[in-house]
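Section 3.1: Structural characterization of target chains.
Under the original work plan, the team committed to producing a structural model for every single-chain target entering the pipeline before any wet-lab resources were allocated. The record below documents one such target. The sequence was received from the expression subgroup and is listed exactly as submitted; it comprises 227 residues.
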Amino acid sequence: MADGDPWVVVQHVAFEGPGSIATAVHDAGAGLAVVRVDRGEEVPKPGDVDAMAGLVVMGGPMSVHDALEWLEPERALLRAAVGAGIPVLGVCLGAQQLALALGGEVNAGPAPELGVGEVHLTDAAIRDPVFGHAPTPLPCVHWHGDTFLLPDGAVRLARNDAYENQAFRVGDRAYGLQFHVEVTASLAAHWGPHMPTGMFVRASDVAHVARAGDRIVRRFVALAGPA
């Protein structure tokens, strides 16, 4: 990583963009490159991480076990980024991809977890540079049916009664979040037509999640240091 290197976001579907992550990166004075695999754009190669300030892998309705040609290259990219020590964030599907890439397991959960909810931070999260100042319970948006077992050496940061593993950290700068805190009013509007039956997110819920979520996102982006 060198001064001026951009953050890279891998986006899987049109309606699951980076939300407040993009704002935090721009406010930090860094560039942002969004790779749209849903438009046929190729996942960056593992060697490309040397020219990245950080890597973010977003969510999507697909499974890590689907027969999609970009899933394994994405896991290879995640492994390389963690190995290079740059900030890495996996959100929802991205968290499952990160767990699997680092030797964890991804399986179907007991039941889909949908809508606005909360997670409880662990003692390790209270000491964490990204989650340490966040409230617990932490408000968030859930939209998943799969779950993961933590890779060896990972630190659990959040859980709830439905899913034991909701967030984890590997090393100092790689994070997986099963839930969404990057929500903005614009992002929620894009989610709307694609939400499963019975799931909805009110404007007041968006504002509630965003207040804590924005601070988490900004502390994560700050791990890259000055732009």
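The chain has a mean pLDDT of 95.
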